[in-house]
């Protein structure tokens, strides 16, 4: 019986011989990384571009979908360099595609196989081939965090053009890879004029959105990289450029980003509802945007005096829950900052501009109509009977304490940035971005114009006796003038914008503060007495104690400092978490008050 069965089997094999499938053998050998098996399969007649079929197969080295993939795709993704070389020698298609349109170069790039990437490029692989998601091998290398491959692709002139979906910048930020982001922004600026403004805004807000996944240090680096990239685009419309600067400054106040723009130069027509859904990818909904973005937009509309939009976006930010918040929590809870990032973000509710607070409290409005642009400052005359207001409408206005207009001071040709009354209250000084200061009478008549600065004037002040006037300018100097408007001296020495010049109570010295992080003390002959060094960011303001023996300075480094009148540091007043805008002494000189962007006022006992 057994012998008859054996004879029957032999008959079947001889009559119906079983043919091996070389294509399947080739695929199997490729998946296993078996070079000998690959060679044997090709020798047996396998198609060098055989397909796996539309099934999901997982690589043993990294999870890869090899659906409908060729042996070269598999070997490239798995890093089998000898198999890659052998397949190419046997005329494998270096531009073959998987089900999702990924080429061998895509797979090698995302998995970090640098030498295979080089081999594929040398053998005419299309570096600009796009998969079904419109992504090139550059996207793949960025997503995989493969810095050296990104460099090779850029050197090989890979093209990048944002059309839809997730950009390479977002992929870099999701991987918290600031080095790759730097490389990308240096070679493919989002501000390139090949994009229209709508696409540029989309890319910009994508980056801001995802920058919140970075550490504070890397976020600072990112905003500076964007700012430097922006400065290179001289052809860009000022309105668009200044809008980007506005948001960059919001996201990192510690960066030395200058605010050389006016409110009317900011783009007032950005359609955030249309742009923001793209802040993550094409399927991203507006509900998922990080609250920090909404807070920034709320400030944007507050800056433009659009209160309804301010409240709308503020509400969106404060009430919003986001999966990105949870991701930021996981990334930032365990870093060295030792703070709850999300709580800090939500505390921004209290940080909206002061005019919002005014609107919420609904005070009695005395002055309702007057200026036609943003009001920069209000100040009272020494006797309290007159109010001076200055505006970006190029004018100053004088009002009585009941809100009745007394006079409009016309003559400046650019924003009026600062105003001061003389100690006797009879003269008004205005400082303007038209590079001049002007002196006026109480009834609004021009006395004289102080000309000589080469850039915007930021501040003007009178000495206590009213005989000398000081002006501070963005030309890095301060100047002294007589009360009649005659030029006396130029105080030279700062290497940055001079924000303020103020007199000591006895009128014998002047303090100037600058963006160069120093305060300088001068005598009335214009000679430098001392330089106060110690702050690590722009200095906003300085003030003398009532007896003139001490000087307090406020800085963007989140501190105030107390100095002797001859420039020796007494103490650093710490505790604020954001820029310190102002500092002042109590009238009896016993206390110092500091006000900060962190929405607090600190009181220090001397």
Structure, explained:
The chain is of the alpha+beta class. The chain is built from 20 helices and 23 strands. The chain has a 4-stranded antiparallel beta sheet with strand order 1-2-3-4, with no helix packed on it. Strands 5-6-7-8 form a 4-stranded antiparallel beta sheet, with no helix packed on it. Helix 6 runs parallel beside helix 8. The chain is elongated. Residues 9-19, 55-63, 279-287 and 332-368 have low confidence and may be disordered.
Which key terms come to mind for this protein?
alpha+beta, single chain, 4-stranded antiparallel sheet, 606 residues, 22% strand, 23 strands
Number of strands: 23
The residue-averaged pLDDT reads: 80
Strand content: 15-25%
Broad structural category = alpha+beta
Helical content band:
25-40%
End-to-end CA span = 114 Å
**What's the Cα radius of gyration?**
34 Å
Stretches where pLDDT is under 50 for at least 5 consecutive residues are 9-19, 55-63, 279-287, 332-368
Question: What is the overall silhouette?
Answer: elongated
Q: What is the number of helices? A: 20
Question: Strand order across the biggest sheet?
Answer: 1-2-3-4
The profile of the biggest β sheet is:
4 strands, antiparallel
